[in-house]
Automatic annotation (TrEMBL), chain B:
Entries under SUPFAM superfamilies matching the protein: NagB/RpiA/CoA transferase-like
Gene Ontology BP annotations: acetyl-CoA metabolic process
Xref: PANTHER family: CITRATE LYASE ALPHA CHAIN
Main location: cytoplasm
GO molecular function: citrate (pro-3S)-lyase activity; citrate CoA-transferase activity
Protein name, entry field: Citrate lyase alpha chain
Annotated InterPro entries: Citrate_lyase_asu, NagB/RpiA_transferase-like
The enzyme's E.C. designation: 2.8.3.10, 4.1.3.6
Organism (species): Labilibaculum antarcticum
Pfam families per the UniProt record, alphabetical: CitF
Cell location: Cytoplasm
Gene Ontology CC terms: ATP-independent citrate lyase complex; cytoplasm
UniProt catalytic activity: citrate = oxaloacetate + acetate; citrate + acetyl-CoA = (3S)-citryl-CoA + acetate
């Protein structure tokens, strides 16, 4: 997910061409206090005019404890971007207050079947402590994300390249997200010139269960995709596992072996995930296996 | 009379003579002997042991007996750092020489000072492959007496060999030379690499002066320019500033947009059917086009592809790819980076070639005809895939034909990379302001918003679609971009022709009219 400052029309206009899965039009930290109004109007207008192609569009509004949060919702919710992000979520009450306003605005505008999902962002120690309950607090939440910069500031530490200070938070947030069936997204990598550092951090967060990463420069897109996208070898193996699974299933066999290794339901599920990442049509495999 | 792309071409222009309209990319190319006039080299003689060394450039020029109406040629290997052409013009002016035809292989920002010589009528004709900066502005508003002729690199050679350009004096900078005029650009304090453009001047000019700031013991090794073509040799304090060879356009870009376009272009190449062992490749200078090399390098490593050769303007990035074994060789007509000179000097697989071998359409060994893939830039493209690399948004002359049309005509795959819009200006037009490379020789235009494939290549379009690339009709892309940018007003141009764009075969592909209000 690529962060785009909400007060930069040129960057918003180009946001959809970089090949990232999602863009986040930011009305919060990227926008100076004296430009909040202008950014809100700009994002509102650009949501209606810019072609973002296949890229999912998320808008990060300001927190309700600022004078801008509610005004942001009033402008953005009627346009129903793919998602809206609520920053610095600390408690279930925060979510409820936020969702109450979202639903009120949707009702005011006659939006009966809202398509917009909610991302909650955990950026304080209190938020980390409450994250399981937050993740489960509303059915429209479909992703949860960690804000590393604010979290380290809240903890009074400096974010180091090894990420040790936020490691517990990362793992706790992943567990909370997974427990509630949510996508879990990692924080930004701030040094846009350190490709290797970005690659290492992305490999790490993939290992511990994150589904994606926030980016601050389009030059970071390919590296993150390279890490998350399955390799040709992984796809080949997953294709074989799923194909054999279909054949065995028809024969009423639940557990089988490939090259001497046991293949059971979790292995099949992982294979399906790889194939989905690789955008391979499962039905096509099922047809061929038949 | 109208040419093959519908441009009205005058039959005759005073000061330049009869013009032939462009008839198509390959219409004048026939096998074997070409039915054009061939100019033989000037025969020269010197008495035994006569010295060619002159005490200064002025003395050397005087010995060449300059005259009003003469043709002066130079090369542009030092690009923005050239210090020789302006010295030469100043001396000729002080000698009272007028009505000069200047035929430098290209003209850069180092030559802004020529404007005053145009204004006073000292220079009345210009033949070159590129005009930029203040000189471009001056010509655009009509300050040159006769229209400038902008040719391709290969076209320049052809113009020499057919007598379209008849050099009376060539003043050639060399970073090392000996007292007989054996010369190179490969070493010395001002090393600039290949002397590929200068080679043709040395061979065909009536008088040739080698100017160097590094006179070495005889013989100068290696010697691109050989002594039997050289009349005089001059040692000067400086031939220019080699550090200005590499401009911002010759380094890998950091721009996310250019990198995105380059990534798509590299993917186009990978799925073109030409991405295989033995592939030959050329990339132009500038933002996205040069960045393609970065991605191609990664793709070649990933797929274990070893190419045959790279050609053209060579950057240190190309040298790195040679050293990594990704290509067997480089054919170098121009080094875009002073650091490349070390490779020219030391690596036998880095082969210096003349512009004749590089791109002359009328020889039987032009390297551009052996080219598989070329990646080129554009200022504008149009719905017929025509490309403009010369005139800017206001109609001003600000670029170079260079090897654009030469390589496009010869390559199996010509990929043009450009953003869909720059600032508020759409790049895809109904008709480009100036056609330099005809759409007939362009296969793919790559933008960040889609890949446009020439309708003459349906199989290529299908292959790229299959590879998951977003292939779009160029007219649809134009419409989409215009929804964002609007349609710019027509440029306000005058009715005076200020430049002719010569296709590589010597025919006229387009004309450039004067700009009335250049802001």
């Amino acid at each position: 997910m690529l962060y785009i400052p909400g007060n930069n029309p040129a960057m918003i206009q180009q946001a959809g061409v970089y090949g990232c899965d999602a863009v986040l039009l930011d009305l919060e930290d990227a926008v100076a206090l004296n430009q909040k109004d202008a950014a809100r109007i700009l994002v509102r207008n650009m949501l209606q005019t810019v072609n973002f192609y296949e890229t999912e569009v998320c808008v990060r509004v300001n927190n309700f404890h600022t004078p801008f949060g509610l005004a942001d919702l009033e402008e953005i919710v009627p346009l129903q971007p793919d998602n809206i992000r609520f920053p610095k979520t600390e408690t279930v009450a925060d979510v409820k207050e936020f969702m109450k306003e979202v639903r009120r605005i949707e009702k005011d505008y006659g939006i009966k079947n809202p398509t917009m999902s909610i991302h909650v962002m955990i950026e304080t120690a209190k938020g980390v402590a409450n994250v399981y309950d937050i993740a489960a607090s509303d059915s429209r939440i479909d992703a949860i994300t960690i804000g590393g910069q604010d979290l380290t500031a809240d903890m009074g530490i400096i974010k180091t390249p090894d990420g040790v200070g936020i490691d517990y938070a990362r793992k706790r947030i992943v567990m909370a997200g997974k427990a509630n069936g949510l996508d879990v997204l990692d924080t930004i990598f701030a040094d846009v010139n350190d490709d290797e550092g970005l690659r290492e951090e992305t490999e790490y967060i993939k290992k511990i269960g994150f589904a994606g990463k926030a980016l601050i420069n389009p030059r970071q897109v390919d590296i993150v995709h390279e890490v998350f996208n399955p390799t040709e070898n992984e796809v080949r193996k997953a294709y074989r596992v799923y194909s054999e699974f279909i054949k065995n299933k028809k024969a009423g066999i639940g557990v089988f072996a490939i090259d001497g290794k046991m293949i059971d339901a979790p292995v099949v599920q992982r294979a399906i995930t790889v194939l989905e990442y690789a955008k391979i049509d499962l039905k096509e495999i099922e047809k061929n296996a038949g | 009379m109208k040419n093959a792309i519908g441009v009205e071409i005058p039959e005759y222009i005073e000061g330049l003579g009869k013009l032939e309209p462009f008839q198509g990319v390959w219409s004048s190319i026939i096998e074997d002997e070409v039915p054009v006039t061939n100019i033989s080299r000037t025969l020269k003689a010197k008495k035994p042991h006569a010295s060619k060394l002159c005490k200064n450039l002025e003395e050397a020029i005087k010995k060449c007996k300059p005259f009003d109406g003469m043709t002066l040629t130079c090369h542009h290997h030092l690009r923005g750092g050239d210090g020789v052409l302006m010295q030469t013009i100043k001396i000729l002016d002080e000698m009272g020489i007028k009505d000069i035809t200047l035929a430098s292989s290209s003209l850069t920002s180092a030559h802004d000072g020529l404007v005053s010589y145009l204004e006073k009528g000292m220079i009345t004709r210009i033949f070159t492959s590129g005009i930029r900066g203040a000189l471009g502005d001056a010509i655009s508003v009509g300050k040159l007496k006769y229209p400038a002729v902008i040719h391709s690199h290969g076209g320049r050679v052809r113009d020499f060999l057919t007598g379209r350009i008849k050099p009376d004096l060539s003043v050639l900078a060399a970073s090392a030379a000996d007292e007989e005029g054996n010369a190179t650009g490969a070493h010395g304090p001002s090393a600039f690499g290949s002397m590929g453009y200068a080679d043709i001047d040395a061979r065909y000019s009536r008088n040739v002066i080698i100017v160097t700031d590094n006179l070495v013991d005889y013989p100068c090794i290696p010697s691109t320019i050989r002594q039997h073509f050289i009349d005089y040799v001059v040692k000067v304090d400086s031939i220019g500033d080699a550090t200005k060879i590499a401009s911002g356009t010759t380094r890998i870009t950091n721009s996310p947009m250019d990198l995105r376009i380059a990534r798509i272009a590299a993917t186009v190449i990978e799925h073109s059917g030409l991405f295989k062992n033995g592939m030959s490749f050329q990339v132009g200078a500038g933002g996205a086009s040069l960045a393609v090399a970065k991605f191609l390098r990664e793709d070649m490593k990933r797929k274990e592809i070893i190419g045959s050769f790279m050609i053209g303007g060579v950057t240190s990035y190309g040298v790195d790819m040679l050293n990594e074994g990704l290509f067997h060789s480089i054919f170098d007509v121009q080094s875009f980076d002073a650091a490349v000179s070390t490779s020219v000097l030391n690596n036998p697989n880095h082969i210096e070639i003349s512009c004749d071998q590089y791109a002359n359409p009328n020889n039987c060994g032009s390297m551009t005809n052996k080219l598989d893939v070329v990646v080129l830039g554009a200022l504008e493209v149009d719905v017929d895939f025509n490309v403009n690399v010369i005139t800017g948004a206001s109609g001003e002359i600000r670029g170079a034909s260079g090897g654009h049309s030469d390589t496009a005509s010869g390559a199996n795959l010509t990929v043009v990379v450009c953003p869909a819009f720059r600032g508020r200006l759409p790049i895809v037009k109904d008709r480009v302001h100036t056609v330099v490379t005809p759409g007939e020789s362009v296969d793919v235009i790559v933008t960040e918003r889609g890949v446009c494939v020439n309708p003459s290549k349906p199989n290529l379009a299908a292959a790229l679609k299959k590879a998951g690339l977003k292939v779009v009709d160029i007219r649809d892309l134009k419409e989409e971009v215009e929804c964002m940018t609007g349609v710019p007003a027509e440029k306000q141009l005058g009715d005076k022709i200020v430049a002719l764009v010569e296709y590589r075969d010597g025919t006229i592909i387009d004309v450039i009219y004067n700009v009335e209000n250049l802001s």
